[in-house]
Amino acid sequence: MTAIANHTIAWGDTLSQIAQRNGSTIDALMALNPSISNPDVIYAGASLRLGGGEGAAGADSASTAIGTRAVAGTDAMARGGNAASIAQQFLGTHVGELKHSGQLPMQTWVPDNVNCANFVSACLQEAGVIDASQGSASVDQLASNLKGDGWQTVSLQDARPGDVVLMQRDGQSHVVLFSGFENGQPRFIGSNNVNNDGTQSISWGGASGRYEIITPPR
What we know:
Helices cover about 25% and strands about 25% of the residues. The relative contact order is 0.16. Mean pLDDT is about 80; it is low at about 55-80. The longest helix has 11 residues, at about 115-125. It contains seven helices and ten strands.
């Protein structure tokens, strides 16, 4: 008897990412889950059939709708991820530990209280959206590099998970990643100054007041 494998869709998952992790394809997963009519839209909390048997689990009405389109770009689509879903894997991690772990291509010399651009650049590189020459540990330099390469400002309504969020906070530049919507509210993730000693850990939030969202060429 063929075993039936299922996957509970997590916030930030993309169909291509799930397919890659399980040695499958988008077309195969859509065939197993006919309730998915748009490969760019799946639902957090829903059960996804990965193989075996007839029919599909699909999404249910209690699931939270999220945008799950991978960030534009051939490399990003090939890898099947986006920078925000990569960032989510490190939630709660102190940036001082993360930058020395080798898990992301971060610059180790950056002080532990100013790693926001260092982290965002590393997540973008890991997603295949940019290369090392485009990244920077400086928020302003990262913004200049991305805009120089054709990244454009978009409205919050048109933002996609993995887009970059730029802002000025307390007179200093800060950057995080847009991660989608939950209960109609935008979610952001990045390296934020949330520790008692002023150092940073990877956490939700980081965007407040006026901010600019930029997206790669579409």
